[in-house]
Amino acid sequence: MHSTGRLDENEMQSYLPRTLETFIVTASRQFPVLMLTGPRQVGKTTLLRALCEREATGRPPRRYVTLDNPLLLSLAREEPALFLQRFPPPVLIDEIQYAPGLLPLIKEIVDTDGGKGLVWLTGSQPFHLMQNVSESLAGRVAVMHLQGLSLVESLGLGAATLPFLPGNAFADKPAQEIASSPLAWVFERIWRGGFPALYAADAADRDLFFGSYLQTYLQRDVRDLAQVGDLMAFTRFLRSAAARTAQLLNIADMARDVGVAPNTARHWLSILQASGLVWLLEPYHTNLSKRLVKTPKMYFLDSGLAAYLTEWSSPETLEAGAMSGAVFETWVLAEMLKSYWHNGKQAPFYYYRDKDQKEIDVLIVRDGRVHPVEIKKTGQPWRDAVRHFAVLKNLGLTLGPGAVVCLCNERLPLTSNVEAIPAWQIG
């Protein structure tokens, strides 16, 4: 497929504004090449095509080319120079990972032209892609990462969302109906997840969508790009990872559950990370203490996909089930991550746990201060929830405002420097 990059009228009417838009526009004015990565079907192409509507009219309209088209993919692989002659800048090339041989030629073109925002690229699976991009386009490319819809994006409020930080002012969003049943409302969102297709006017059936998504992911990306031979065992590994979300990473146990060698499990975990499906929260280290746990915690980045893989059939069964607290923590952390990534920023997140079992779910380190955050599936948090915050002072850290993210109806002070924040107000 090739066409102008712009969405048609119907597509524009159903488009949900993304927080990353502003950063993409800024980056495209500074760099000749823009690279947008992220999992399949999180809206990368739709986002960039929507932004084509706002581009300056002083040059030809940006063309859109997808390498999912077998004929165009064959041309890109066999005759990359001819491909770029046929589709010169400004151009949006979708799924660049299938034809990395285009990258050196793109470098030559942008070096000769000298303009900005010449080539926009998307890539679903950066297994080997990022190394090729960094080698071929060093200093010429702005790389950014898109995840599924954040909560505020799914409600059409994502155009101006700030990175989450305790103590900052947040709007009372998103909707009045939450106050009557926050638990049911939030768990419906958790169970559905953040893929844009599930929020369209003609939204796909959730189970059918995830079934198709997994089939495409396993066949197109895991088999073709990551060269995993045993897809059945890999699927079991994927389910094992979903069941262990928000837990300390234990590769040996996961390998034993699936029946593969630990080295194979490590390789498969790296695939899930590179795919943007799993993220590791690293422990916070200081030079003052050797008693801190050094194992990362593993999180599934889409709570809906995690719930599907672990076979929770409804929001109600998920909320009442054994994974309820873990999947709530997973969803909250993913929302916090999106608030940073979708603003083009790194997420300075860690967790704290020591050998005395004192634990803090998230530490946000900004401007020399540490902001502790607890995530609790409760509507009535107590001061006991923040009792471990005091241990940070013993490490000589400078503390900023802290928070307990929970299911309370409104923001409430718990101590002089810690407040309870409703889970739907963190984005």
Structure description:
With 427 residues, the protein is an alpha/beta fold. It folds into two domains: 2-145, P-loop containing nucleotide triphosphate hydrolases (Rossmann fold), CATH 3.40.50.300; 151-425, no CATH class. Helices cover 38% and strands 16% of the residues. The protein has 17 helices and 15 strands. The protein has helices spanning 9-14, 21-28, 44-52, 70-78, 80-86, 102-113, 129-136, 151-154, 182-192, 206-223, 231-243, 251-258, 262-274, 303-309, 315-320, 324-341, 391-394; strands spanning 2-4, 33-37, 63-66, 91-94, 119-123, 141-145, 247-248, 278-281, 297-300, 349-353, 359-366, 369-375, 402-406, 412-413, 418-422. The strands form three sheets. Strands 1-3-4-5-2-6 form a six-stranded mixed β-sheet, with helices on both faces. It has a six-stranded mixed β-sheet with strand order 10-11-12-13-15-14, with helices on one face. Helix 9 packs across helix 14 (303-309) and helix 11 crosses helix 13. The protein is globular and about 65 Å long. The two termini are 36 Å apart. The model has no long low-confidence stretch (mean pLDDT 88).
Instruction: Tell me the number of strands.
Output: 15
Helical coverage, percent range? 25-40%
- What does the main sheet amount to? 6 strands, mixed
Count of helical regions: 17
Enumerate the spans where pLDDT stays under 50 for 5 or more consecutive residues: none
Strand content: 15-25%
In short:
The protein has 427 residues and is an alpha/beta fold.
